[in-house]
Amino acid sequence: MSSLLKVIVGSKNPVKINAAKHIFTMYFPNNTIDCLGVNAPSNVPDQPIGEDETRIGAQNRVNYCKKHHQADYYVAMEGGAEQFSYGAATFAYVVIDNATEQVVGRSSNLPLPNILFKALLNGEELGDVMDKAFNTTNIKQKGGAIGLLTNNHATRESTYTQALTLAMAPFLHSDLYRK
């Protein structure tokens, strides 16, 4: 009989919950994974701008989950955007916490058209901007900007999945990371 592994995700967005469930199922194939999404405030703007604001949003979500829920792992993902020296891009920070240690990870960058980035600087959320540009509805709970801009060769979920996969390394080899 497999043991239960409880994972709390700091969002009700099915894309984020599915990414977390995929990772824990992959890393813990002998466990039953109970993955639950909860509303957790980021305490940053709805559309974070900059790496720090984005990372802090994910950490705030995880810390809220730890304070209000009991689980084996707590997970949060926060998407943000930034104007880098080479151009505008969107990315996500991921945070995984097991009540003993907290690991921060980051996704790769998706280049953003300047016209879309400017809309973000004017206070719009990327999902809404993408819905307008591509005539979609609620894309952030589907393939996201990543799906639209890559013609679905990558998706928001696949990007979160990769970032979470990498962020699990310190939990898998904790003795090495503690040295």
Brief overview:
By secondary structure, the protein is α/β, with parallel strands linked by helices.
Strand portion, in percent? Answer: 15-25%
CA-based shape? globular
Q: Describe the sheet with the most strands.
A: 6 strands, mixed
Radius of gyration: 16 Å
Please count the helical segments: 8
Structural class: alpha/beta
**Count of spatially separate domains:** 1
Mean pLDDT: 95
What is the strand tally? 6
Question: What's the CATH architecture?
Answer: Alpha-Beta Complex
Low-confidence stretches: none
Can you give keywords for this protein?
single chain, 179 residues, alpha/beta, Maf protein, 6-stranded mixed sheet, hydrolase activity, hydrolase, metal-binding, nucleotide-binding, NTPase/PRRC1
Describe the structure.
The chain has 179 residues and is α/β, with parallel strands linked by helices. The protein has a single domain, classed as Maf protein, CATH 3.90.950. It has eight helices and six strands. It has helices at 14-27, 51-68, 114-121, 126-134, 144-149, 156-167, 169-172, 174-178; strands at residues 4-9, 32-37, 73-84, 87-97, 102-106, 110-111. Strands 1, 2, 3, 4, 5 and 6 form a six-stranded mixed sheet that branches. Helix 1 (14-27) links the parallel strand 1 (4-9) and strand 2. It is globular, with a radius of gyration of 16 Å. It starts with a strand and ends with a helix. InterPro entries: ITPase-like_fam, Non_canon_purine_NTPase, NTPase/PRRC1, YjjX_NTPase. Its EC number is 3.6.1.73. Keywords: Hydrolase, Magnesium, Manganese, Metal-binding, Nucleotide metabolism, Nucleotide-binding.
